[in-house]
Amino acid sequence: MGLGCVSINTFFKYQRTKLFPSIYLYWQRYQAQVLVKLKAIQDGIIIAGDGRHDSMGHSAKFGAYTIFCCTVPMIIHFSLVQRNEAGNSTGMEFMAFQHCMDFLLAYGLLITTFISDRHSTIASHMKNVLTNIVHYFDIWHLKKSKDIPVFTIIVDCIIFL
């Protein structure tokens, strides 16, 4: 038939040497442009973060934490953590959260509000270390943990805002 095929070794070689570096360089340029826009916002920004693991339960090997900017709806940063860096799989989300916040604060962004799930270590860190940033729990996780109508939660949030 005359079809050309690429061997598996060639495929992974091009992936490693061409594709991944191109994606990484694009992400760096994109992120730099977004962070310049966000740094120009004088009133500060509102961000939300959440973590994911590669598998359910307490046996995950990798964890990713993603920061989403609510002021300008874009993903502005993420961090990948391996279990052996954090000590255990439950500590991965907090460690990735710390990496993200350290990066954003070191860049000089004025973060006024942070929204997260009900992760106890993150809540404690926000209360004790990052005291100048207002911390809220997102409605979905709040509703999931309490057996009350969503309307009541929304009304309570509006009252406290």
Automatic annotation (TrEMBL):
The chain crosses the membrane at residues 62-82, 94-116. The keyword Transmembrane helix applies. Keywords: Membrane, Transmembrane, Transmembrane helix. PANTHER family: PTHR31751:SF40, SI:CH211-108C17.2-RELATED-RELATED (PTHR31751). This is Gustatory receptor. It comes from Porites evermanni.
